[in-house]
Amino acid sequence: MSEIVPPEVRPKPAVPAKPSHVAPPASVPHMPPHGPGAGSQGSGGGSTLLGYVGIDTIIEQMRKKTMKTGFDFNIMVVGQSGLGKSTLVNTLFKSQVSRRSSGWSRDDKIPKTVEIKSVSHVIEEGGVKMKLTVIDTPGFGDQINNENCWEPISKYINEQYEKFLKEEVNIARKKRIPDTRVHCCLYFISPTGHSLRQLDVEFMKHLGRAVNIIPVIAKADTLTPEEKTEFKQRVRKELEVCGIEFYPQKEFDEDMEDKSDNDKIREAMPFAVVGSDKEYQVNGKRVLGRKTAWGIVEVENPNHCEFSLLRDFLIRSHLQDLKEVTHNIHYETYRAKRLNDNGGLHPISSSSDTQESNL
Amino acid sequence: MLIKLSSNFYFTGGHSRYEAFRKGLQRNLEGYVGFANLPNQVYRKSVKRGFEFTLMVVGESGLGKSTLINSLFLTDLYSKDYPGPSQRIKKTVQVEQSKVLIKEGGVQLTLTIVDTPGFGDAVDNSNCWQPVINYIDSKCEDFLNAESRVNRRQMPDNRVHCCLYFIAPSGHGLKPLDIEFMKRLHDKVNVIPLIAKADTLTPEECQLFKKQIMKEIQEHKIKIYEFPDTEEDEDSKLIRKIKERMPLAVVGSNVVVEVNGRKVRGRQYPWGVAEVENGEHCDFTVLRNMLIRTHMQDLKDVTNNVHYENYRSKKLAAVTCNGVDTSKSKGQLTKSPLAQMEEERREHVMKMKKMETEMEQVFEMKVKEKKQKLKDSEAELERRHEQMKRNLEAQYKELEEKRRQFEEEKANWEAQQRILEQQKLDASK
């Protein structure tokens, strides 16, 4: 949903499938504090209901609305070429949504500067329509000199915030502002087995405050289980030492339940994933996997890799949260800075020349 | 015997034999001469001398270079006690070498591994190949200087014979850094590109990747190490097989796991075991055979004949063109042999003098030490002597005391005896 909701009311939609290890978020909406304490949650001054009123059907109403309007999700993938970004995105959304599949060939020359290419698709499941935009960054980290290769990306993210801000500040606003802000950035870490590369640390430092970064260990079938745990520990420690906060950020945990859920996830991050869009037969079932001479790596097998964890986390439990953190926190930070810098922004009646400002 | 042979040739040779000589074809011997034993002589001499081989590994950190070296030579060059450069974080590119002497079947090999930690790891990797080039050139220069000396009895060969370049298994193609590096080094050293961590790629991906790399290598006119063609059938088949598989996709491991009851070296995954020495899984055995078992000598020959000669001619051309040595090296190429001999003699004399002074110093020091020790022991002895003297005196005094007492007693006793006798006399009267 791209409507602007006031920060107090944070409805969480009911999840269709209950993931096994991530506790489902509370499905009861938090009512505004000044409203009547509803149901059995008697929060200060609550009067118990004498009969069934039907307030809880608000969820159903919201669901219907959402299904009609659909919602959009923008995901950015960043990493060196050859780390399996496009394959992973295809595997995540179980369709050919990446740039590769939309016509770019495999042996394209590596671009000289970092380019930003975005591809949009509308995918539908169970009556719910989602406009998924995948933003790819070819050329990142591939040159000999990679100084400031994160700058085009930073500029793009800020441009999207700027666009949204402009629309918001308009006198005659559109009913539904198209949301092109980057909700989530998947950063692909190369599975060296040793530690983070300098480029990784630099990128995450510069962009951690502007967008939700989810670090992911790419091509995890390179690492044996012991190497994997060691590498993960080292990466986590390094991120801690450098003060890099990846999503889910500790500072935004609202209550104990959130905190414990997110703690569990943070312990398991970064997820070591393997992507594949080919199916093979294993024990009578068709599974997505990679066939090597010594065995088949099953993508959705939790013993082989953590792809299913990532998918459940990203799509099945925290999709809406990602959008909300982007809107409530990252966008607000940008907006505050912009308004402070310019001493107030004048509302613009129609499209005018854009002013770029860097965060 | 030889003369007889030649006379045979000249006088009894018919037209066919003359033709055969002209064409340089093999002659049949009429008895056993014995020079078939030459290879054995060479072999014995070489074995006594021992062999040297310098191998350089270049690649980004985390590509498994140290593991591969350990697997190739079946030793732990980089072990827990001496962790390899990969375990240490580097800010700039370093060039480190480790020497190890390995023996097998009476043949000893001085193996030098040159590692380049920090290569390609920084954010800005421009000129990260410069330290590598400098190292290779400096080794060639050392050899050139050693070769130009008048007295060149020992010429240690430290030139880099082979450079293994590790390509990250992205599956797409070469990175700009790979291309730059190989372009700059292909005429200085034998470059053998390898695909590292090949267990990331499925067989199809591997094939595509190899084709793509070879295409790019040809496009950029990079001259990687070419295997020499031989006439014998068996070898050429082998070489063709290797050529088809270039660049070699390798997996390294020194961990032994069990597969179907056999113990093999490999990497254990939840979905299977990638065996290092299985030809279906990776090209490690091909690399090892090629590098060690069949082509080690050829690598050294190519380094000597091609790369070193290139360096030498470039260096000498620079010198003769300008008439003066432009590079600030300790090159002694501009002097005549006599002058050089003089200089060498002077050097030698100076060295001797230095050694002499050093030895004198050492001698002095030792003499001082000894003197000190002797003084110490002398003092010790004196002390003991004093002590013993005192002991003796004390004993003497004691004895004197006792003697006096004894005398006293004796005197008393005699006095008493006399009294008694006197009394007895008195009594008897």
Compact description:
Chain A is α/β, with parallel strands linked by helices and 359 residues long.
Molecular structure report:
The complex is a heterodimer of chains A (359) and B (429). Chain A has 359 residues and is of the alpha/beta class. Chain A has helices at residues 58-69, 85-92, 151-169, 198-207, 225-242, 256-268, 307-317, 319-342, and strands at residues 71-78, 117-125, 128-136, 184-189, 213-217, 271-272, 279-282, 285-292, 295-298. Chain A has a domain at 58-76 and 114-137 and 148-273 and 303-341: P-loop containing nucleotide triphosphate hydrolases (Rossmann fold), CATH 3.40.50.300. In chain A, helix 7 (307-317) crosses helix 8. Residues 1-44, 102-107 and 347-359 of chain A have low confidence and may be disordered. Chain B contains 11 helices and 9 strands. Chain B has helices at residues 2-12, 15-23, 38-49, 65-73, 130-148, 176-185, 203-219, 233-245, 284-294, 296-322, 337-428; strands spanning 51-58, 96-104, 107-115, 162-167, 191-195, 248-249, 256-259, 262-269, 272-275. In chain B, helix 9 crosses helix 10. The model of chain B is unreliable at 1-14, 80-86 and 324-332 (pLDDT under 50).
